[in-house]
């Protein structure tokens, strides 16, 4: 499974703690992240993460491009709802793309934990079918 981590500045420590808590689960997956979030996770875990640019510099859009091509399976995006973000249009676009492509998206730790528990149980097998039979493929 391809999993992306994104966290606003005031949520980065929470993301690191979450990654530490579920490190054994994440070790078995292909991981992606925006720049600083990925750096902080890798400094505190043994996880290997493909890092994109920082969110405000285009990292959200780089992950969004993978979502648009249905190449992402799960996104954990710890947003700070109390702080205005200068790249809010990019964030909204990413959320919209997840809805369009049916990509599970957690925007808080409670939802992230539910999704990771489902991942541990193997409840994401349907994503393998999505990759195997992409829309537009002949049957």
Automatic annotation (TrEMBL):
Catalytic activity: dihydroxyacetone phosphate = methylglyoxal + phosphate
Gene Ontology biological-process annotations: methylglyoxal biosynthetic process
Record keyword Cell membrane present: no
MF (Gene Ontology): methylglyoxal synthase activity
Binding site for substrate: 8, 12, 34-37, 54-55, 87
Tagged with keyword S-adenosyl-L-methionine: no
Entry superkingdom: Bacteria
EC main group: lyase
Gene3D superfamilies membership: Methylglyoxal synthase-like domain
Xref: NCBIfam families: MGSA, PRK05234.1
Job description of the protein: Catalyzes the formation of methylglyoxal from dihydroxyacetone phosphate.
Family that this chain belongs to: Belongs to the methylglyoxal synthase family.
Protein name (record): Methylglyoxal synthase
């Amino acid at each position: 499974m391809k999993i992306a981590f994104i966290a606003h500045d005031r949520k980065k420590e929470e993301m690191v703690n979450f990654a530490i808590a579920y490190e054994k689960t994440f070790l078995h997956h292909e991981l992606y992240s925006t720049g600083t979030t990925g750096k902080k996770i890798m400094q505190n875990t043994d996880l290997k993460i493909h890092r994109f640019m920082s969110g405000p510099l285009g990292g959200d859009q780089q992950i969004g491009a993978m979502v648009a091509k249905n190449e992402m399976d799960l996104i954990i995006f710890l947003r700070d709802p109390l702080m205005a973000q200068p790249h809010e249009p990019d964030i909204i676009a990413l959320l919209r793309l997840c809805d369009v492509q049916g990509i599970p998206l957690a925007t808080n730790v409670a939802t992230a934990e539910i999704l990771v528990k489902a991942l541990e149980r193997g409840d994401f097998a349907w994503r393998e079918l999505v990759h195997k039979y992409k829309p537009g493929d002949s049957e």
